Amino acid sequence: MGDEYQPIPLPDRAQLAPAEQLAAAQAFRDHMRRRHSVRDFAPTPVAEEVIAACIAAAGLAPSGANHQPWHFVAISDPAIKAQIRAAAEAEEQTFYAGGAGDEWLAALEPIGTGVSKPHLEIAPWLIVVFAQRWGETADGRRFKNYYVPESVGIATGFLIAAIHAAGLVCLEHTPNPMKFLPALCGRPASEKPVMILPVGYPADGATVPAAAKRKKPLAQIMTVLRAP
Question: What's the whole-model pTM score?
Fold first, then answer.
């Protein structure tokens, strides 16, 4: 914090020749097309080093003022996973009993979600994503973080892509509210939990909802304002 601006030469250039760009972009698109959010996990172990490498990739994301306002708690302890499942299901019970409202519940019906969350125990790892609402210097002084939701969202996208690149699957799980997570994960009051990602291999009989494969076509998500 407080470092004066010190420019250095661009250390890496990943640019491709124009003839290679389209193929590279299409290859990445096709790779990500094979990514699926999975609720049916196998209990097969995953090495901690793999999870650490994925989180390290997330830590490379851009952020407001380069404050990197995120923290990732990786959990393989069965007892802690069981506590998280119990707490999450208690919150989900209220959610699905009407706390979410009819419109929200109707929107979730094609996805097939419900109160029961066995994946929170079966998946070999849970990664809990925390957003740091403010930071602290070494001497305890508080400072403001900027664009926290946007920064953490980008880092989480990096993390999900890294998990997919490692040949694993995850599920973007957001129990609401998540007030039980900071204490279970030993995180400070400055951090707010935003997502739980169960991570592992898909079970042999894993399924995904058909609705999840219906993506908006490019024409609906892209507008081009061409040069005259």
Answer: 0.93
